[in-house]
Amino acid sequence: MAITNDGFKGQTVFEFLRKHQGMTTAEIACALGKTHASVAGILAQLFNHGRVIKTSNPEGGQAWYVNNLPFGCSNPTLMLFNRLLTECRHAAN
């Protein structure tokens, strides 16, 4: 998905990714007119803070998505497990 519109320049990486989920680091860098290294660094910081998640795309690269789940819960299955475990523990008491 190549986006090379100058209208995106001036947006932050997070703002851009929120509107264009599933893009690679290179695609985001090209669209925002930033270097690959700077976007990779920003995405790494966002990932470490739980703001974005990365998955493999069909081409074998990494696709980035905004994490819409609560902090520390980037995996919906893990969230479900933790919720059910909490319910079981409360029922046992």
Automatic annotation (TrEMBL):
It comes from the Bacteria. Pfam families: FeoC (PF09012). Transmembrane segments: none annotated. Residues 13-58 form the Transcriptional regulator HTH-type FeoC domain. This is Transcriptional regulator HTH-type FeoC domain-containing protein. It comes from Lelliottia aquatilis.
